[in-house]
Records
---
Amino acid sequence: MIPLASDTETRPSAAMRAAIAAAEVGDEQRGSDPTVNRLLERCAALLGKEAALFLPSGTMCNLVATKLHTEPGDVLLAEGASHVLRVESGGAGMVSGVMTEPITGSPGVPPGTFTVDDLDATLDRLAHLPFPYAPPARLVCIEQTHNMGGGTVWPWETFAAVTARARERGLAIHMDGARLMNAVVASGVAADRWGALVDTVWIDFTKGLGAPIGAVLAGSEAHIARARRLKHAFGGAMRQAGIAAAACLYALDEHIERLASDHANARRLAAGLARIPGIRRPAREPQTNIVFFEPAPGGPSAAQLVERCARRGLGLGAIGPRIRAVTHLDVSAGDIDQALAIIAEAIADG
Ligand SMILES: *Cc1c(COP(=O)(O)O)cnc(C)c1O
C-alpha cells in the first residue's frame, strides 16, 4: 500500500530503532530520564524558549496549553478549520471549559491563515457588549503549517502583524506547530524566530519527523512548570520515556532537512493531478507536504474514489468532499508516479 493518507503513517527506520534500542533511560516522571532531558534542552534551544516538556501527543500539547492560558468561560480563538477546534474531540471545552470562537480568513488569504483585520473583526464581534457581559477573549491559537488549509505556511509579515496585534489586545498566543519544521524548511525562517512571537509552541515528532511517539511543548520557565503539573494531572507523565525520546533526537538529527524532498514530492503530485481529467485541485502550489484535491462534479464522491484507490494499493484520506494526500519519508518520487497512475485509472474505470 502506498501510504499517502497521512504523515503519521511513517514507521521507525532501522537506524531509528537502533537509536531507540541504545537509549539511556531513567524516570521521566521524576525528571531523571537523561535522554528525555537531552531532547528537552535541544527543543527549547530549537524553539527559542527557556524550557520544554515531553508529552505523549500533540493533542495533549494543545490540551495543556489551552488550560495553561485560560480560565473556564474564557474564549479560545482559532482559525475556523483549525485542529484545536475541529479534530480534538472537544477536548478544549471538556478540560478547560473554554468557549471557542472561529476566526475566518478574508477572501484571498492563504487558506488557514487570517489577517490583523480578521482578528480585529472577531474580537470586536465578541466585545459588542461591555464588561461584564461579553465572555473575555484570552487565547489565540495559530496553526503552522495549517493542515486543513493544505499545509499552508504563514506568510512571515502576516504572522508578525497578527501576533503583535494579539498582544496589543491582551491575548496569550499559542502555536500549534505540529508541522512547524515543515514550515521552517519551506520558508527558510528558523524555528526560534517563529517561536519568539508566541508564548507557547510545540512540535510533533510523529508527523513528518517520523518518530513513533511524542511531542514537545516549549515556553517560559513559569509556563512549563505549570504545564508539567497539568501533564501529570492529565495522565501524561511517563516513566522510561527515553525509549521514545531517543527516536525524537534521531529525528532532529536526520529527518529535518529531508522534509524538502517531501515538499518536492507534494509538488510532483499536485502537478500530476492537474493533468488527470475528472480531478480538481486548488490552483495554489503546495508549499509543504499536504495536497488536497477532489473529484469533479458528475464523478465519484471523494469517499468512493478513495475506496477505488485503496483497492488498487493507494491509501488516501477522504475529508468531507475533499481528498487529502500527505507526503512523508516512507513515500518516494516513484510512489508518487504510481499513485498518479492509480488515481487516473480509478477515476476513469471505477
Ligand atoms: C496531528 C495534529 C495535531 C495532533 O497531534 P497528535 O500527535 O496526533 O495528537 C494537532 N494539530 C495539528 C495541526 C495536527 O496536524
---
Amino acid sequence: MNQKDSAPNSLNAFALKKLKVLEAKNQRRVLHSTTRCSEMRLSVDGGPTLVSFTDNDYLGLSTHPEVIRASVEATEKYGAGAGASRLVTGSHPLYDALEAKLAEVKGTEDAVVFGSGYLANVGIISTLMGVGDLIIADELVHNSIHTGMQLSKAKVTSFRHNDTQHVADILEKERNQYRNVMIVVDGVYSMDGDIAPLQKLGQLAKEHNAWLMTDDAHALGTVGGGRGSAHACDAAGLVPLQMGTLSKSLGAYGGYLAASKPVIDLIKTRARSLIYTTGLPPGTVAAALKALEIMTSTPGLTERPTALARRFASILALPEPVTPLVPLIIGEEAATMEAATKLTDAGFKVAGIRPPTVPAGTSRLRFCFSASHRDEDVEELAKACLALGLGSKA
Ligand SMILES: *Cc1c(COP(=O)(O)O)cnc(C)c1O
C-alpha cells in the first residue's frame, strides 16, 4: 500500500459522505487554475482571454510594473522567505517602512502588519476581547471576524445590517452588564457595495464607551480618497481600530491594524496569529509598500474604479454606486448562474453570487470595477448585459 491510499477507510468515507451532502445542496466548491495578466485580462483553465469584473484588485496594482520590480528587488536582496516569525528574526527592514506608511494613510499613531487580513481579524479581536465582554457585530460582517469573535470567548450579538437604531437599542439594554464592548463592521460590504454609517456608529460608541472597529478590506484604495471608510464618512477620529488587508487594492498580500501606539504594542505582544506564524516574504512587503506609494501619489487613481462603476450603473439604470462594487440582483439561483455563463461566453468574467453567501431569493451578479479597466471594457460589458435583458431598462 503506498502513501496515496493509506487514509483509513473511515476517514475517506467521512470525507465522501460530507461531499455528497454538499453536492446535493449545490455547495461543493472547486478551484480553477487562473492566469491573470494586466488590465484585468485573465484565462481560466487555459480557456480564452476574458475581461474580469470579479477581482478585488481595484487599482490594478497586482500587475503594475513598478510593484513587480519592487517585489523582485526585495526578493533578491532579502531572500524568498522571512525565515522566522516576526518576533524572532522575520521582521525585515521593509516592515517598518510599510507600517509607518499605513499609519500615515490611516491617520493613526501606529500600525502593525499581519500575515493576512484573515489572521489580522482573528488576532485583533481575540486579543482585545474576552470573557465578560460584549461584541456587537453587523449581521453581514466577514467570515474572519466571526472566527475572531469565536476565539475571543466574548458574548457576541448581531445587529440588522447598517441599522444604527438596533445598535443603540442593544447598547441601552446591555452595555452595563459587560466590562468592555466592541462594535465591529465592514467599512465597505463586498456583496452590496454599501458603506457602514460610521458617523452615527462612532457617536454611539463614544456615548456608551464602546470601541468601534472597521474592516476596511474593500475600502482602502476605493473610498475616502483611498484612505478608507472612516475618511469617507468624515469619522476618522471616531474609529480607534481600523483593520484592513494588503491583498485587495494594494494587490499584494497581508493584513494590518492601524490604531494608537498602546493598542499596537499590545497586539505585537499578545496576538497569537501574529506571534505564532512566519513573517511575510520580503517581496510581498515590498510590493505592498510600493503599491501604497503609488496609491497616494497618483492623482485620480482611487476615484477611477467608482467612476467606472457609476458609468456602468447609469447605462443599466441601476442605483448609483458609492463604491466600485455593483450588485445586480436577479433573485433565482439558476437564472443568476445562467446569466454569469452567458457573460463568460461574451468574453467577461463576472461572479454569480448565491446562497449561502447571500440570502435566498437575492442571488445576484456582482461587478467589481478596477482603475485598470479600459473605458471601452465598461461600455462593452454594459452592452452585453443589455443584450441579455439585464438592468432595469430591460
Ligand atoms: C478579503 C477579506 C478579508 C480577508 O483578507 P485576506 O487578506 O484576503 O485574508 C477580511 N475581511 C474582509 C471584509 C474581506 O473582504
---
Amino acid sequence: MRTASTNLSSYLRYLPSVDELLRSKTARQAIDLAGAAHATGLARQVIDDLREELRSGSRKTPYSKGDLLELAASRLENAWDAEQKTSIQRVINATGVIIHTNLGRAPLSDAARRAVADEAAAYCSLEYDLGTGKRGKRGGHTESLLAELTGAEAVLIVNNCAAAAFFVLTVFAAGGEVVISRGELVEIGGDFRVPDVLAQSGALLHEVGTTNRTKLADYQRAINKKTRLILRVHPSNYRIVGFTAAPTLNEMADLAHHNGLILYEDLGSGALIDLDEFGIVNEPMILSSLEAGADIVTFSGDKLLGGPQAGIIAGRRELIEKLRSHPLNRALRPGKLVYAALEATLDAYRRSLASEVPVLAMLSMTKEEIAARVSRFRQELDKRLGSNSSLQVKAVEGVSTVGGGAAPEARLETVLVAISHQTMPTVRLEQLLRDSVPPVIARIADDRVMIDLRTVSNVDEGHLIEAIARMC
Ligand SMILES: *Cc1c(COP(=O)(O)O)cnc(C)c1O
C-alpha cells in the first residue's frame, strides 16, 4: 500500500509546469488573444491552484500526466473566457428599464454614435477654430446649442451632474452657508447624497422646514451674514405626496436676489423639452427653471436628455464664466467623445426631432405599439422554434420603468414576452440569455423570464430570437 505522501508526491510530479501548459494548443490561442505576458500569468495561476488542490487533498482522484495537462488547459480557457466577460461590451437590454444605470444609462442615437466614431475619435476640431486657423474654445458649439435650447445666458459642461453640483457649491458657497429644505436632503442613486456633496464642497448646510412642508418664511429666517446660496434639489427618484408645501421657484428667486444670494437648482434628470407627450408629467424643464429666476441649474447628459454622461451647468453668464476660469474646471471637463455625442444629440432637439433620441423614442412607445411588436415577434419566434420546442411563450401585460432616478411615478404600460421551459429552471433560462452574443439582459417575474421589447431596438430582435432559440 502506498502512503498518502507518496500519493501526493506522485500526483504533484504529474502536474504540468507552466511552460508545458503554455505549449498546449489552448494556451497558444490564449497567447495570441491575450499576449504572452498575460497568458503566462493566467497559466501560472491555473497551475498554482491545481497544486494547492492536490496538496490539500481536495482533488482525490489519481490523475495521469495527460489528464492533468488537459484539465489545466481547460481551466486556462475558462479563466480567459471569464476575464472576457468583464470587458465592456454591448448588451441587449430586455429589462424595460429605459435609463438602466447598470447598463450605461442612455443608449446613444445613431447620429451621436457616428459623431463619436467618425469625427471625434479621429483628430478633430476640439479646440481649434477652422475659420481662423487659431486655437478655439473647447466644447464651444455644444455649449451654444445648450444655451439656445435652455434659454440660458451661458453653459459649461463637466463630467457628470455630481461633478457639476460639487463644482457650483465649491466655487460659490465654500466657507459659507447653503440654505436647503429638509425635504430635499436626498440620496440619488446610492452614492450621490446631497448632504455629503455639500460637506465635500466646504459649504455648511443650513436645513430648514420639515420633510413634507417648507415655507418661504423658513428660508427667510435662515438667511444670515454667512449665507451664500439657496439650493433647491429636484428629488428625482422619489416624491413626497399628500400634505406638502414648498414655495414656488419665483418666490425663492425673489428672496435670494433681494438678499444678494444665488439661487441654484440641481435638476438632475433635466428635461430639455416638455415631456408630457412622452408620458412623463411634472418633470421640471430646464428652461422653466431658468425663466423662474434660478441663477444656475445643473442636470445630467445621460438621463432624460438621452445623451452621453455629462454634467451640464446652465445659467447667468457672469457665474458660468467664473466657473469656466476656475482651476477645478480643468479637472472636471469631459473628453472630446462626450462633446461630439452630446452635440449630435442636441442637434436632434434643435430640429424638433427628439424622437431620434432613443430614450425619448422608448418613452413614447404606446402599449398598443408594443403589443403589435410582440405579436410580430412571437410569429417570428414560433417560426424559428418549430413545433417541438419545450418553451412556452406568452404575451402578458406589465409596466416598463424610466429608471436612472427619474420620474418615479410614471407608469409606462407595456406588453411583455413571458418565457418558461418545460424542464429547465427559470434562472437557467435567464443565464443562457446572458451567455449569448450579444448578451441579453432580462428579468424574472412569476417564475418566467420576462422580455420587454420597449428597450430592445428593432434591429436587435433577430439577435434576441436567436438567443431565445438557444434555450430549447
Ligand atoms: C442623477 C442626479 C445627480 C447625479 O447626476 P450624475 O450625472 O449621475 O452624476 C445629481 N442631482 C440630481 C438631482 C440627480 O437626479
